[in-house]
Every structure is written in C-alpha cells, then in structure tokens.
Amino acid sequence: MVKVTLIPGDGIGPEVAYATRDVIDATGAQIEWEEVNAGETVYKEKGTFIPDELIESINKNRIAFKGPITTPVGKGFKSINVTLRQKYKTYANVRPVKSIPGVKSPFNNIDLVIMRENTEDLYAGIEHEVTEGVTEAIKVITEEASTKIAEFAFKYAIENGRKKVTAVHKANIMKITDGLFIRCARKVAEKYPQIEYEEVIVDNMCMQLVMYPEKYDVLVLPNLYGDIVSDLCAGLVGGLGLVPGANIGDDIGIFEAVHGSAPDIAGQNLANPIACILSGAMLLDYIGEKEKAQMVRKAVWAVMEEGKVKTRDLGGTASTKEITAEICRQISLQK
Ligand code: NAD
Question: What is the pTM assigned to this prediction?
C-alpha cells in the first residue's frame, strides 16, 4: 500500500479530486488516501490556510494529490500553492500537453511537455511598496535552480524518447536574470548532444506555439513564463479541463492539474475532471504503477474518442460525476 496525502482544495477542487481518487481506485492500485485539506475552506474553519496536519502528512508520505486552491488577489499573503512548492522544493513543474482525440481544437497533433521552474523567479513573491504609487517586485533566478530544471528537462527527454529541448527566455531584455537561466540551460545541453537544443524568446514562442505547436517537444522555462505558456498550450488542446501536472522534487511528488479552483462553476457538478484524472495517471507512473497509469489514459482516450459523454467545456452536457463514472466503466472493460 502506498499512502498518498489527498488535498481536496477549494472551488471545483473537491469535485475533481474525488473524481480522480475514484478513477485511481477503479484501476485497483494499492493506494491508501490520507485526506487533509488546505486553502480557503480550511481557513474559514481553522483560521489557517495550511494546517499542521497537512505538513505532517506530506512530510511522512512524500506523495500528495492536490485539488486547486483559491488565492485571493492582492490581499497581502502568499499563495498557498507557491508556499507548498517552495517548502517542499518541488523544483520541476511538469505539464504534458497532448492533443486528445475527439476534442474540438485548432490542432490535433500536439505532443509537448512544459518544464516550468517552480521555486523562484517573480513567483518568489518578493514585492513591496517603495512609496505610495510605486511598487517593486524582485525576480530571483539562481544558477542552482536553473541548472536543476534544465537537468530535469534533458533527463526527462532521454528517458521519454523526446528529441528536442527548447529553452524559453527574455534574455534580450532581462540580460542578467534570464541571461543566467539560458547560460545554465546551454551548459546542461552540452552534456546531452543526442538531444537537439534551441532557445526561443518568450514573445516569439507564444506566436510560434499558436501557429506551429507541432514543432515543439520539451520546453524549459522560468516560473512566470511557464505559468503563462502552460495556459496558452492548454488552450491549444481544448482548454484547462484537460491538462495535467506534477510538482516534482528530489524525493517528493505533488500532483495537480494546471487549472485553478474555477469559482464560476464550483459546486455545480460541471467541472471537467480529466485534467485532474490525468494528473492521477502521472502519480501512478511516479509510484511505478505504469500499467495502471496507462489504463487511466486509455480509458480517458476511449471516452473522448467515443464523444458521447463530454462535459460542458468540451461542448457536451455530461456532469463531473457522469464522465467520472464513464471513465471508471472504461477501466473496468480493460480488466
Ligand atoms: P481557473 O483555472 O480556475 O479558471 C479559468 C477558466 O477555466 C474559468 O472559466 C473556469 O471555469 C475554467 N476551468 C478551469 N478548470 C476547469 C475545469 N476543470 N473544467 C471546466 N472548466 C474549467 O483560473 P482563475 O479563474 O484565474 O483562478 C481561480 C482561482 O484558482 C484563483 O484563486 C487562482 O489563484 C487559483 N489557481 C489555483 C491553482 C492551483 O491550485 N494550482 C492554479 C491556478 C489558479
């Protein structure tokens, strides 16, 4: 039995996190879920966003599955997501973006992976008011974190049969910070001559991605560009309801979808659970249950290809619960 901390989260979080738990359980994977919540919901009950029980649970289990957590805008405290990523040094945020059959989108041939540095950059949250009407944020880029994410990207490329790594930056303007980021990436690239390496400036990257996304394979980016480019890429394959993610550190994995808590549709049984469910498949891969991970992906693909059960974001009318049940049914057919 592998113990996994389950954080339901806020907004649509519980709906999609429980859907994922049900799908993973349907594969027969030997997982014991230890549920401890964090976020706005917990704050209202306990006066803290990250309760001690959660820290204890993650410290012990080293694997967590997380629903999205709401971060109120501009209220002067740091995002819970960012806090967890920094606390557990999950330096790599891995986001595979792949076209799914049966999903209406401008492209059907996308298969790329975003490697977003996950601990620093403007996301370090170091900002202050200099004087009234003047504010300042500090962009932190270190050799250590930049080298680690580049190493991670190249190792991933080798282990997963990928051919090319593209480092994304704005070093023409951010000469010192992004300059360091690409110097580190270049140095790492020299150790992997079998993988093609290229550099693209982030604004051009956005245009390239919306015109020729099939040209890209593994993208490695500093935190903020990674955040923005992830949503852009999600849009290319049918939206945020479909793109999974994992926060990986040296001995820890926290799995969560790219999307947020979607307050506009929360509690209505409307959310698409596929992004979370595919993050669950990444969790299964991480714990070595590769066959069960494939079962989950195959089931999702089958449901999408058939096209009868789709949530509203994909033009269908199915509820979160209906599509979850259909994915579980597809898993049972594979047994
Ligand atoms: P969001 O991703 O929650 O929603 C953006 C749009 O996509 C909304 O229209 C929403 O309805 C839709 N959407 C998102 N996920 C969907 C799904 N699974 N199925 C169907 N539609 C879906 O982004 P936002 O509105 O900018 O952020 C809401 C909150 O989530 C904010 O507090 C933000 O800070 C937080 N957030 C958390 C995480 C995280 O926990 N990892 C990530 C991003 C945003």
Answer: 0.96
